Automatic annotation (TrEMBL):
<comment type="pathway">
    <text>Amine and polyamine biosynthesis; ectoine biosynthesis; L-ectoine from L-aspartate 4-semialdehyde: step 1/3.</text>
</comment>
<protein>
    <recommendedName>
        <fullName>Diaminobutyrate--2-oxoglutarate transaminase</fullName>
        <ecNumber>2.6.1.76</ecNumber>
    </recommendedName>
</protein>
<dbReference type="InterPro" id="IPR015424">
    <property type="entry name" value="PyrdxlP-dep_Trfase"/>
</dbReference>
<dbReference type="InterPro" id="IPR015421">
    <property type="entry name" value="PyrdxlP-dep_Trfase_major"/>
</dbReference>
<dbReference type="InterPro" id="IPR015422">
    <property type="entry name" value="PyrdxlP-dep_Trfase_small"/>
</dbReference>
<keyword id="KW-0663">Pyridoxal phosphate</keyword>
<dbReference type="InterPro" id="IPR004637">
    <property type="entry name" value="Dat"/>
</dbReference>
<dbReference type="GO" id="GO:0045303">
    <property type="term" value="F:diaminobutyrate-2-oxoglutarate transaminase activity"/>
</dbReference>
<dbReference type="GO" id="GO:0047307">
    <property type="term" value="F:diaminobutyrate-pyruvate transaminase activity"/>
</dbReference>
<dbReference type="InterPro" id="IPR049704">
    <property type="entry name" value="Aminotrans_3_PPA_site"/>
</dbReference>
<dbReference type="InterPro" id="IPR012773">
    <property type="entry name" value="Ectoine_EctB"/>
</dbReference>
<dbReference type="GO" id="GO:0019491">
    <property type="term" value="P:ectoine biosynthetic process"/>
</dbReference>
<keyword id="KW-0808">Transferase</keyword>
<dbReference type="GO" id="GO:0030170">
    <property type="term" value="F:pyridoxal phosphate binding"/>
</dbReference>
<keyword id="KW-0032">Aminotransferase</keyword>
<comment type="similarity">
    <text>Belongs to the class-III pyridoxal-phosphate-dependent aminotransferase family.</text>
</comment>
<dbReference type="InterPro" id="IPR005814">
    <property type="entry name" value="Aminotrans_3"/>
</dbReference>
Length: 395
């Protein structure tokens, strides 16, 4: 059983140490119990500052909002209204989907093959994984699923076909309210969309007055390098969903960023009891100190290169079972040709002191999400443990 954790390491009750290359499924980009974030939290609690405030104004919330504007939005020339939709990623997605339907008066949401957006009904309806959708019992309505970038190995001009059907009144495809997309599909198997594909999608949305929602719950907050994963593509989504590493400390916090003219909510139309969790505002504000310069972004990209090179080497040695290396920034996957291999590699890694997970439609991808603050030595150590684990499973 795990007991303590610091940085990229967790320790069990017997004192055994594990390198954590799963990082709370992307919720711990700055590692466990980061000292600065911890002291901001302890100072806040020590002073009887307010913890739970629903949607009341608080000093902690105002400080976070001002800092988010100053450190994240203004330097990028982004103008969004900020909504606290509830504590988790799925709450941010639900708010985005509801708002898109309310603003446009249209029902359909376009999603993508292998997408993952959450486990509540709305976000599940736009999730591509049929195993997860089966949890809803009966089919979920008002969605159209399109092939994600490279899903068809470039065999079909993705958007042309959809655009043709949109323009054909006999096709039965109504103009959708919105398209929801991840720039890299985390749960879907570390599929990265190209900048060109994302720009094509954004253009299609603009031409047809369809809202573009980027779900940056897993790939945001620096996981792919820049704070927002869509930055390198040069697109500006109409709505952005953030959560996971937003609080920086593993505390629940989510945001829905809304193009100002789309904010048509009436008071009380979307709320939730834990949208005013002040300790998360406090650590989230402290975590923004990572973004006052470009150091973290640069280091993430450099470390990402190191991971990719190591995974390429492992692939070259086991090309009979590994079919590819996919990812971006510090989100990477090793794709196995048989679904049973990736969980066995994760088990072998666990035995050797490395925590990682599987993803992909059949769990065929061994997934690495080390904290962005992982040191070079720890990264090298973890990658060696992974190479040993693959060797042990494949020999
Ligand atoms: N969107 C994406 C892209 C995710 O990866 C996840 C969680 N894996 C969610 C939404 C849902 O977030 P949560 O589990 O916090 O509800």
């Amino acid at each position: 059983m795990f007991r303590t954790a610091l940085g990229s390491r967790v320790h069990d009750e017997n004192g055994r140490s594990y390198l954590d290359f799963f990082a709370g499924a992307g919720a711990l980009n700055y590692g466990h119990n980061h000292p600065q974030l911890k002291s901001s939290l302890l100072l806040y609690l020590a002073d009887d500052n307010i913890v739970h405030s629903l949607d009341k104004h608080t000093v902690a919330k105002r400080h976070f909002l001002e800092k988010f504007q100053e450190v994240v939005l203004s330097p990028r020339g982004l103008d969004y209204k900020i909504q606290f939709p509830g504590p988790t990623g799925t709450n941010a997605v639900e708010a985005a989907l509801k708002l898109a339907r309310k603003v446009t008066g249209r029902q359909t949401i376009v999603n993508f093959t292998n997408a993952f957006h959450g486990m509540t009904l709305g976000s599940l309806a736009v999730t591509g994984n049929s195993m997860k959708r089966n949890g809803a019992g009966v089919p979920l309505n008002h969605t159209v699923t399109m092939p994600y970038d490279n899903y068809l190995d470039g065999r079909t001009p993705d958007f042309l076909l959809f655009e043709r059907l949109l323009e054909d009144s006999g096709s039965g495809i109504d103009r959708p309210a919105a398209v929801i997309v991840e720039t890299v599909q985390g749960e879907g198997g570390l599929n990265p969309a190209s900048a060109q594909w994302l720009r094509g999608l954004a253009d299609l949305c603009r031409r047809h007055d369809i809202l573009l929602i980027v779900d940056d719950v897993q790939m945001g907050c620096g996981r792919t390098g820049p704070f927002f994963s869509f930055e390198p593509a040069g697109i500006t989504p109409d709505i952005v969903c953030l959560s996971k590493s937003l609080s920086g400390y593993g505390l629940p916090l989510a945001l829905t960023l809304i193009r100002p003219d789309l904010d048509v909510w009436e008071p009380g139309e979307h709320n939730g009891t834990f949208r005013g969790f002040n300790p998360a505002f406090v650590t989230a504000a402290a975590a923004l100190d990572f973004w006052t310069d470009e150091r973290l972004q640069k280091e993430t990209l450099e470390k990402g290169l190191q991971v990719r090179q190591a995974l390429n080497l492992i692939t070259a040695e086991h090309s009979d079972v590994i079919t590819g290396v996919r990812g971006r920034g510090l989100a990477w996957g090793l794709v196995f040709n048989r679904p049973e291999l990736a969980p066995r590699v994760c088990e072998a890694a666990f035995e050797r002191g490395l925590l990682m997970e599987t993803s992909g439609p059949e769990g065929e991808v061994a997934k690495l999400l080390p904290p962005l603050t992982t040191s070079d030595e720890e990264l090298t150590e973890g990658l060696e443990l992974l190479a040993e684990s693959v060797q042990a499973v494949c020999e």
